[in-house]
Amino acid sequence: MTGATDTRVLTRGEAEDFLYHEAELLDGLQLDRWLELFTDDAVYWVPARYDEADPQRHVSLIYDDRGRIAERVWRLTVGPAHAQIPPSATRRLVTNVRVGPPVEDAVVVRSNFAIFEVRKGTQRAFAGEYEHRLVPHGDGWRIRRRTARLVNCEAPIFNLTFLV
Hints:
The chain is of the alpha+beta class. Helix content is 20%, strand content 44%. The chain has helices spanning 12-27, 31-35, 66-77, and strands spanning 38-47, 60-65, 89-103, 106-119, 122-137, 140-150.
């Protein structure tokens, strides 16, 4: 990555470690620690269609700024998230990690994912592609934009109450 103030490069191995750590936090319901991975201007987007490119022009399943992400985390950890009583058990598999060229001042990291969810005896599976836009922060990286493109987004999803 090149930039005016930070010239660090994110290797694929470092990107994998970052994504694996994120998955571990989500699956372990360590959502306050997961929230710390985001910048103050972060966006979390789950498009309603796999090929959508602009959340301002199309319907989204989730389109949250940093404040809404924090509200989501609060509901799942403290508040009344009735649809998550009891909470879902999830396991994420992250694979095919690719570090691309920078967009603006962020490194673009793409990966494939599969999420398995079990709640109240019902099993569901989700798969797709993540796109993380990471920016340097201290001695690590933070998420400026996180997009989860579900390949099954046009199938009945019922209630998407856990974090994709």
